[in-house]
Amino acid sequence: MNPTVCSKSKRQSENRRRGRSLGELISDVDDAEVLDAGLISSAQAVEHYEITRYGTLAAFARRLGRDDCTRILAETLAEEKATAKRLTELADRKVNQRAAAE
Ligand SMILES: [Fe+2]
Description:
The protein has helices at about 5-15, 20-30, 30-65, 65-100. The protein has about 100 residues and is mainly α. The chain has one domain: Ferritin. It is elongated. The mean pLDDT is about 85. Fe (ii) ion binds near residues 47, 50, 80 and 83. Fe (ii) ion (FE2) binds near residues 50, 80 and 83.
């Protein structure tokens, strides 16, 4: 990764730590490719959070013998995993490479 991307990534991480909004982050990034990579990264974080929540809820439902809820939660969990996989493929295939290029 080039120094410009590293610097911007560090600033974005710092902004997240300080709880700045996504809109504020978007306005901070001038480079469209870096912005795309950052937006995908944010979307991946959301998907991974959802995977943990739906996974836990499905486990609870299964433990409680609620097959009706387990089935729906398992379907939703599978959708979240598929979305996370698509985002990762998009980032790996195109977006991160473009963001790292000068
Ligand atoms: Fe999702």
